[in-house]
From TrEMBL:
Gene3D superfamilies: DNA integrity scanning protein, DisA, N-terminal domain (3.40.1700.10)
EC number: 2.7.7.85
Residues in DAC domain copies: 79-236
Name listed for the protein in its UniProt record: Diadenylate cyclase
UniProt similarity note: Belongs to the adenylate cyclase family. DacA/CdaA subfamily.
Annotated organism of origin: Eiseniibacteriota bacterium
């Protein structure tokens, strides 16, 4: 058996990490204007390698003169994508297990706003993104990129406001977009009492791992959709228990709210 030198193993690990980072970056910018800039950057790097290989002195001098500003230029051009990549890394389950992220502050803000809107019978549709990205749905609304607060959520769902009828999508501690359009559930036999918001919440929960909270405009009833199931007619205590069970699972189950599936 041929012995493997430690340096060779380190080089392989180094290459794999760099390849993974570039792959994730390109996957995130694919289909956006940034992807064209990324390709242009790759072409420039390729030209610099060719210039060095064939000793093209003039071209080499130009490229070497630009090297000092390349890093700054890269950060400026790809700032949104780099921020999204770092956010994605920070939301990794392994890192979350090693470093306890303050998530209850966000849940507290959601609960406070939902309680207020339920009392006022103000319709709301709040989506909490988990492991599956919701970029397609974010792009259907208006980007906010604002810190989650109960006041802002209540403002978004003020009756007759431009964003009132759509969904607000939360990622981490940010409200990334509002007024977003969600897919309606095609499940047959749903209760006729369910409105468009409930069907949209269930539709997204059937397609992704997102958690969707609904406040009925007609009754003020609170509902939650997750993993293809819709639980409705919750009070604030039951909603708190459901969110705690999802984001901090425990063996015990929360008290039994009504579950909506197919009618028997």
């Amino acid at each position: 058996m041929i012995p493997i030198k430690p340096q060779i193993l380190l080089d392989v690990i180094d290459i794999l990490i760099v390849a993974f980072l570039f792959y994730r970056l390109f996957a995130m910018i694919k289909g956006t204007r940034a992807s064209q800039m990324f390709v242009g950057l790759v072409v420039i790097v390729f030209v610099s390698i060719v210039a060095q290989w064939f000793r093209l002195n003039a071209l080499n001098w130009i490229i070497n003169s630009l090297k000092t500003v390349w890093v700054i230029l890269f950060v400026i051009l790809f700032q949104p994508e780099l921020r999204a990549l770092l956010t994605h890394i920070g939301q990794n389950r392994l890192l979350r297990a090693l470093i306890r992220v303050e998530g209850y502050g966000v849940i507290g803000e959601i609960l406070k706003s939902v309680e207020e809107m339920s009392e006022e019978r103000r319709g709301a549709l709040i989506v909490v993104e988990r492991d599956m990205g919701l970029r397609n749905y974010v792009e259907t609304g208006t980007k906010l990129e604002a810190r989650v607060s109960s006041e802002l959520l209540e403002t978004v769902f003020t009756p007759h406001s431009p964003l009132h009828d759509g969904a607000a999508i939360l990622r981490g501690d940010q409200i990334v977009a509002a007024g977003c359009i969600l897919p309606l559930s095609q499940t047959r036999g749903l209760s006729p009492l369910l409105g468009t918001r409930h069907r949209a919440a269930l539709g997204l929960a059937e397609e992704t791992d997102a958690v969707v909270i609904v406040v009925s405009e007609e009754t003020g009833a609170i509902s939650i959709a997750h993993k293809g199931e819709l639980k409705w007619k919750l009070d604030s205590g039951q909603l708190r228990s459901e969110l705690a069970a999802i984001f901090n699972p425990r063996p015990e189950e929360s008290p039994g709210p009504e579950e909506v599936g197919q009618e028997s």
